[in-house]
Amino acid sequence: MKKIRKGFIFIIVHVLFMGVWGALIEIPEKNGFPATLGYVVWAFTMVPAAIIALKINKWRLQYDRRSILLGCLAGLLGAIGQLVLFLTLKIAPAYLVFPLLSLTPVVTVLMAVIILKEKTGKLGWIGIGIAILAIFLLSYQPPSGKTITSYLWIGLTVIPLMAWGAQGFVMRFANKTMKAESIFFYMMISSVLLIPVALLMTDFSQTINWGLKGPYLAAIIQTLNAFGALFLVYAFRYEKAIIVAPMTTALSPVLTVIISLTIYAVIPHPITISGILLAIIAALFMGAEETKIEPEKSENLEKAKS
């Protein structure tokens, strides 16, 4: 029996963490704790995750100019995308925004193919295509009564779309010369630096739940996201971006839907169910293709980074 590759282990753990996070993330906001303050809590939960990562790496932090730039760039791309998404959802309904955001892996894949010259086999490309279709279906939101007065939402949605797509590429690119722990540390720094922006975006005139079901519950839930992000960096360390991006983006919502079904007893829309089935098929295709490719020797990878 073939040994499971490290990259796929981190992909699985990332999917588990992000799937659970996705199912629970709305609870603090429904309890009266704004999403913008949820960002603040998330940024702070990145700190213990970064400390643990550095401890794993025996407190060795790369602080040359290139490492700082790449690590901070990865963090800023993710954080800016999240903050712009808050603005977007104020003027446009989720059923329009999220299907467009589902194209994020396309950006990562194109950048990886064009710049890093990453390749996969026929099954891999079929899997990538199916995954992108699955993500689109999983992002489906039933139309609401929200009125759209302008098309500014399209331009705003493109920002997180490009930012998150580029973030995946930067993670993979940075992993060629950096330790994953250093990348995540600078991602944490970037996220914390943008806390004032999230605070400025918060409407403090509204009633805010500062109790156990507000920031404290949010901290527990956002910790899943923080460590999920750390495992994603590790996934990009060991696997190609053209595999990691579509696979993680497709499978996390599947787990979210399953958990939500269990907790809230809500039957998914047929379109969502179709997305779940396609996501599983896509993962099988990509996994089958990549198991045929001999992975890089970890010893050589470590030598290149030392």
Give a structural overview.
The chain has 306 residues and is mostly helical. It has one domain. Helix content is 76%, strand content 0%. It is built from 14 helices and no strands. Helix 1 runs antiparallel to helix 11. The two termini are 32 Å apart. About 3% of the residues have low confidence.
Which class of secondary structure composition applies to the elements? mainly alpha
Shape: globular
How many domains, as an integer? 1
Count of discrete alpha- or pi-helical segments spanning 4 or more residues: 14
Whole-Å distance between the termini?
32 Å
The SSE string, one letter per element, is HHHHHHHHHHHHHH
Mean of all residue-level pLDDT scores? 87
Short description:
The protein is an all-alpha fold and 306 residues long. Helix content is 76%, strand content 0%. The chain has helices at 6-24, 26-30, 35-56, 65-91, 94-101, 104-115, 122-138, 152-174, 180-193, 195-200, 212-238, 241-264, 270-290, 298-305.
